[in-house]
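Milestone M4 deliverable, item 7.
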Amino acid sequence: MKDTPKIGTVGEERFVVGEQDLIDFAHDGMPRILCTPRLIWFLEHAARNAMLPFLETGESTVGVVVNLEHTAATPFGADVVCRARVIYADGPLISFQLEAFDEHEQVAIGTHKLRVIEAARLARKVERKTRK
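Output delivered:
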């Protein structure tokens, strides 16, 4: 890492809820709403966006812990803002406070940890697992 991110550094990811973001059981009266796994995907990208200015060439990030309360439903076509704010940094392990809002209310809150890694080193480990 070029530098350790300061407490309070924020990353953001915005999206509009599309077909690929919906629960797959929206039938029998169940509305078409944002599914939790896709929300987590966008929140993790918000955390990654906070880290991008601090990464050296060849470095990347991987999520290692997610703790999320998905507190409100968000319908198809709604705008969503995801924010990740650095709350602690311990070397390559960075902790974030997560929040997501639709046009009406907060829809999620939680925490996330990611680790800064050397992409080539991770690729070598994955390659060893894929050999037969």
